[in-house]
Design a protein that fits this description.
The chain is of the alpha+beta class. The chain folds into two domains: about 5-210 and about 325-405, 3-Layer(aba) Sandwich (Aminopeptidase); about 210-325, Alpha-Beta Plaits. The chain is built from ten helices and 16 strands. Helix 7 runs antiparallel to helix 8 (about 290-310). Pfam families: M20_dimer, Peptidase_M20.
Amino acid sequence: MAINQARLWRRLHELSQFGKQTSGGVTRFSFTKEERQAKDLVMTYMKEAGMTVREDAAGNVIGRKEGTKEVVPAVLIGSHIDSVPEGGVFDGPLGVLAGIEVVQAMSEANVETVHPVEVIAFTDEEGSRFGLGMIGSRALAGTLLPEQLQQIDQNGITIAVAMQEAGLHPNEINKAARQPETVKAYVELHIEQGKVLERAGQPAGIVTGIAGPLWTRWTIEGEAGHAGATPMNQRKDSLMTSLQIIQYIEEETKKYTNAVATVGQISVKPGGVNVIPGETTFTLDLRDIEERDRDHIEEAITSYAYSLCADREMSITIEELQRVAPAPCSNEIRAVMEEACRELEIEPMSLPSGAGHDGMQFNDFCPIGMVFVRSKDGISHNPDEWSSEEDCGTGAAILYETVLHLAT
């Protein structure tokens, strides 16, 4: 195996020191001192791998190894180094550092490629600070809108101001955009963040597609009233109605193989222990790798909710927060990854990604492909997140063979 597994492992843990918490987890938000320190270390690794290094207008760190021909599109390897609060060591950084390891292994073996290879550490994939994820990959794909830079963090600081404080120029964000003809393909290595590979006894797997999230906020308005003086058949209880809708969401989503639905936030007004809830608000995160199936679920639950509220003489408002199209992975790149698995004597296994990744921003831009590495107990976004050194090395080896094929 050309990959230096020990070096990759060492770098993972060196990088984890920036933003390290007493819990053992990592908190590293975008445009902070901790992220700057992490970026500087990543740039050092890229230079050690023989790449030329730059930081673009969005703060993306980009290392480039030239190919043997000029003016040909590059193969991109990407992921991120920002984290959620108290996140793990592997989510994001593994993909960036494995990409650097791929290039360094090629350089040490004097392997040349026709196409250039670029490794990118994208800005703010997680969205933990501003509630807008994939800032860097959106910018590179040319889909980041100027008004999105006005989103604020919990201290009221906008993305634009945070960029300025980090030495960037938000009014020049369009300079980060790439033209499609400059990119041949995008590939990414990531931990699975689930239990599918672990239960199958597989160290790594090939992603079939990335589920597209649909985020909505639902507000059900009934009528507040005295908890003791209002008979059950005279109530307009917004919470009880919301709970019926939420139960229907679960039942409907279970009809589809790859769909998942999560009600992650719920609030009740007035909020008194002896007051019937007059208004209930909850969020819905609905995902599927098939947009058609996701739309069918959305239509079914919306129709049910409006009918239920009409029967109970309540009002309903549904606000769309985010709608991202699912991103199918390229069949051609998947075939290359399957062959790479066979060369490493690993049975190719395919699985969908329920979590979002930077690669989905390039779905209409270039062919994309992803490799997942087994996660212990499926834990992620948690200090206990863990993938073994051997599995990380195996995933990097699959990435190496894939990039070598695509760039040659």
